[in-house]
TrEMBL record:
Keyword Disulfide bond: no
Presence of keyword Signal: yes
Signal sequence bounds: 1-25
Annotated gene: LOC117576736
Organism for this UniProt entry: Drosophila albomicans (Fruit fly)
This protein's name: Fibrinogen-like protein 1
Pfam families xrefs: Fibrinogen_C
Coiled-coil stretches: 92-133, 182-230
Sequence ranges assigned to domain Fibrinogen C-terminal in this UniProt record: 230-434
GO cellular component, one term: extracellular space
Gene3D superfamilies for this protein: 1.10.287.1490, Gamma Fibrinogen, chain A, domain 1
Keywords: Coiled coil, Signal
């Protein structure tokens, strides 16, 4: 016990020293200096190594205690840490599995991403392609010009379009109007069709009536034919029946058929056929045989009826001849023969007969021509050395020419008996002589 006491006292002393010695350096130094001052330089110098030693031990002691404490703390810490680590480990395992899951997810996402990437690449290449195409399309100045022209055209076209629209509207309205008109016409057509049907019915009725009428007409025609025949038969053979109605008439004679004549009722009573006329016309009488045969001229001026018709008439019955003449001084005379007849063509239309002469003229000048054939410029039947028709430019019953020639040229050769009695008008008329 005592020892312990002593030790404890000692220890306290040491501890005190220790505490002083182990105070902070300044304190230490201060304390040391205090101690040195208190203890004096001699004391201090002897005690100092021991103090240093205590100090060192104390430090080490403190350090080991501290360390022990630290160690236990560390231990408990370590334990904690261990538990923590265990926990962490569990956590880590959990996390690891989670991480696996995530990893899988990430993998699948990555795959998707890859796909997307591929798609994106594809799109990018497409875009690149488009870009190239677009670059290829980069407009140059020509294109711009073209574009401008197009624009102008477009303006013109749009104007045209406007015009077109207006026209279209007009057309439309006219089409509508036409439609209306068409329906109007349709109504009319229907009406017309109905009317047509009515008319058809009427037509049928008319047709049957017409057929009946046709029968009637046939009967009628028969009557008309009979009448016509009678009329034909009633056409006269001279101007006698037209005595009160002179002028241009038709007569009929055997061999010549029906032909037109000029009838006269003024010069010598009714019923005369004018066979020759000179009234100052300019008709040429210098004609060939065929023309004299057929006749020529016009009834209102100078004319010759025609040898064939004269032949047919004068041979159908007995005819008288009336020769009318007007001298240049205006005096009218006549010569009249009661049996006028000429032969047929084969005998040269010979002036076969004149009959008995009567007249106001002083000479029977026509007698010279009796029994003379007719002579024309192309048929010389006269007794002269040359052709009298040619010499006197006229067809006539020439002998050694004539005493009177009603067909002669107006002038010195147109006379009644020699050149002393020149004429301006001459006519020859015939009429059946049984009336006399
Ligand atoms: C024509 O006119 C009719 C009636 O007014 C209308 O319905 C139609 O749209 C017109 N058409 C045009 C091309 O204008
Ligand atoms: C429609 O008919 C009327 C009278 O009949 C006529 O004046 C008009 O011109 C017609 N319109 C057309 C487009 O034919
Ligand atoms: C039909 O025709 C008749 C006879 O021609 C006429 O009187 C009538 O007005 C017409 N009707 C129409 C709708 O045209
Ligand atoms: C007769 O005169 C008319 C006109 O006066 C003339 O046309 C015609 O040719 C003449 N005829 C002859 C035959 O000279
Ligand atoms: C007219 O002339 C004819 C023939 O020359 C003659 O016979 C007649 O006496 C004349 N008449 C008159 C009135 O001079």
């Amino acid at each position: 016990m005592v020892g312990r006491m002593e030790k404890a006292i000692f220890l306290v002393l040491i501890l005190e020293i220790f505490f002083v010695a182990t105070a902070t350096t300044e304190e230490t130094c201060k304390s040391e200096r205090e101690i040195e001052e208190q203890c004096g330089p001699h004391t201090y110098k002897t005690v100092k190594p021991m103090l240093d030693y205590f100090r060192q031990i104390r430090n080490e002691l403190e350090l080991s205690e501290f360390k022990e404490k630290q160690l236990s703390e560390l231990n408990s810490n370590l334990m904690d840490k261990y538990h923590e680590i265990v926990k962490l480990h569990e956590k880590v395992i959990k996390e690891a599995s989670l991480i696996d899951q995530y990893k899988n997810q990430i993998q699948s996402k990555e795959n998707e991403l890859q796909l997307y990437k591929e798609k994106v690449d594809k799109l990018e290449s497409d875009i690149e392609l488009q870009k190239n195409t677009i670059n290829g399309l980069t407009p140059n100045s020509k294109l711009f010009e073209h574009f401008d022209k197009c624009k102008e055209k477009l303006v013109v076209e749009s104007k045209n379009l406007e015009i077109c629209e207006v026209q279209l509207k007009k057309l439309n309205s006219s089409v509508i109007e036409k439609d209306e008109n068409i329906s109007g016409y349709n109504a009319k057509i229907q009406n017309v069709t109905e009317n047509l049907k009515k008319i058809e019915v009427q037509f049928d009725e008319s047709q049957t009536k017409l057929k009946n009428k046709e029968k009637d007409q046939q009967v009628c025609q028969g009557e008309v034919d009979k009448l016509n025949e009678a009329l034909q038969n009633s056409i006269p053979s001279s101007c006698v029946p037209f005595g009160q109605y002179p002028g241009y008439r038709e007569i009929k004679v055997l061999g010549s058929g029906i032909f037109s004549v000029l009838c006269d009722s003024q010069l010598a009573g009714p019923g005369w056929i004018v066979i020759q006329q000179r009234v100052g016309g300019n008709e040429s009488f210098d004609r060939d045989w065929a023309t004299y045969r057929k006749g020529f001229g016009s009834f209102d001026k100078d004319f010759f009826l025609g040898l064939e018709n004269i032949y047919r008439l004068t041979n159908s019955q007995r005819y008288e001849l009336y020769m009318h003449l007007v001298f240049l001084n205006g005096t009218s005379k006549y010569a009249r023969y009661d049996d006028f007849k000429i032969s047929d063509e084969s005998q040269g239309y010979v002036l076969r007969s004149l009959g008995e002469f009567k007249g106001s003229v002083n000479v029977d000048a026509m007698r010279y021509s009796q029994n003379r054939k007719f002579t024309t410029l192309d048929r010389d039947n006269d007794v002269a050395s040359s052709n009298c028709a040619v010499a006197y430019k006229s067809g006539w019953w020439h002998g050694d020419c004539f005493n009177s020639n009603f067909n002669a040229l107006y002038g010195i050769d147109f006379f009644w008996y020699r050149k002393f009695n020149p004429l301006k008008v001459a006519k020859m008329l015939i009429r059946p002589n049984k009336l006399i």
